[in-house]
Write a structure and sequence with these properties.
Distance between the termini: 46 Å
Number of helices: 15
Strand order of the largest sheet: 3-2-1-4-5-7-6-8-9
Structural class: alpha/beta
Mean pLDDT: 94
Helix content: 25-40%
Strand content: 25-35%
């Protein structure tokens, strides 16, 4: 079957179904492989180098962790640790962790998924994984389930398919499992929805020592709580993590920080936090730590006269600061017929402003309309600065 998948990977699945219907008993499974491999081409670029890797269901591809995030999860695991993945799904996390751990027990209650995880571990040449087809509650109730670290990724939707916003509403309810897990393991790593409130997560997981806000420059993808049991209570550290940027702080540091404010000028530099940094919200601390001025208490943009190094977000050169006035609007459309428009803490939407300017998205320049600390409405014309 997999040779057939490789031969037809670029063909239309609808046409393949019509052409081969009734001729091959494994046609449905083969078409799932073609569809899932296409969708996961970027997300699982490393894993899919293995041509014998299979997807048991379409849902497995939709819900699986990317290779990049699985590699990050594995980085949290101690070398040579024994690990149990309590909700392994397609097994991408388990496979990455296994390359660092002494052994991994991968638990999944779906027999078809568990069988696929076993097949894929062999196809990938990973020999230190054992697969358990069971519910994680039953697994935890067993007599021989102790390990150094447990990993869990609760389902983020209710039985009716709606998104949930508390860990206790996820499935399984990891908060209810904490006593059973702490009796069998020293550490627990919880992968949670980026939609969850950080304060609420720390309240529901009081033994958290480190909370990671994980994603890319443009998207917050998950919260990861690292819990060490039987430790003295301590304030958790919050870490912003993307493949490019890092920033760590404690809630107390943010509470004690003092931001300074200033109005940007032509030739200065603007700093824009990414999605993960916005989720973590160390707004005052960014100003203090990097010695950059905030534009307004509710405008989470920063400026400085000279560029600063290692800001965990985007850095822009301020080509021009224009007042929000009819005269400036007319001048801007003449100078920038194509420009990417955005708004931050502004009275109008980006769509409204784009139509008012009569400009089209495009070019390398960006316009951000925003409010300054003195209440003035301005439009910042920016050009990008590439990070070294």
């Amino acid at each position: 079957m997999l040779d057939w998948v490789t031969a037809h990977i670029d063909d239309d699945p609808v046409k393949l179904r019509l052409k081969y219907a009734g001729k091959m008993p494994w046609l449905d499974m083969a078409l799932i492989q073609i569809e899932c491999r296409r969708k996961a081409k970027k997300k699982l670029a490393q894993t899919l180098q293995c041509k014998d890797f299979i997807f048991p269901t379409r849902l497995s591809e939709e819900q699986c962790t990317s290779d990049t995030l699985a590699s990050f999860h594995a980085s949290l695991v101690n070398d040579g640790a024994t690990v149990a993945d309590l909700t392994c799904g397609l097994g991408i996390d388990a496979f990455h962790i296994a390359r660092k751990a002494a052994s991994v027990t991968a638990v999944d209650r779906d027999s078809i998924v568990a069988e696929a995880v076993n097949h894929n571990a062999n196809a990938l040449g990973i020999k230190n994984i054992s697969v358990v087809n069971d519910d994680c509650k039953n697994f935890l109730a067993g007599d021989n389930t102790t390990c150094d670290i447990m990993f869990i990724d609760p389902a983020r939707r209710s039985p009716t398919g709606e998104r949930v916003y508390r860990l206790a509403d996820c499935s399984p309810d990891v908060t209810a499992l904490l006593p059973a897990i702490s009796a069998k393991s020293r550490r627990l790593i919880v992968k949670a929805s980026p939609m969850l409130d950080i304060t609420q997560v720390l309240r529901e997981l009081p033994a958290t020592t480190d909370l990671y806000v994980v994603g890319s420059a443009t998207e917050c993808k998950e919260l990861v709580a690292d819990i060490t049991f039987n430790m003295q209570p301590q304030e958790p550290a919050i870490h912003v993590w993307t493949p490019r940027d890092r920033f760590s702080f404690t809630p107390e540091e943010e509470a004690q920080a003092v931001a300074r404010y200033d109005s940007p000028r032509d030739g200065w530099y603007l700093y824009e936090p990414g999605a993960t940094l916005m989720k973590a919200a160390p707004y005052k601390l960014l100003s203090q730590h990097f010695d950059i001025a905030k534009l307004h208490p509710n405008t989470h943009l920063y400026c400085s006269t000279a560029p600063v190094k290692d800001f965990p977000g985007e850095t822009w050169h301020i080509d021009r600061v224009a007042d929000f006035s009819s005269g400036e609007l007319k001048r801007l459309v003449r100078d920038y017929p194509k420009i990417n428009v955005a708004v931050r803490n502004f009275d109008y939407t980006a769509d409204w402003l784009r139509k008012k300017l009569k400009v089209k998205d495009g070019d390398r320049h960006r316009l951000i309309a925003t409010t300054l600390n003195d209440g003035r409405k301005v439009m910042l014309i920016l050009s990008p600065i590439e990070k070294s």
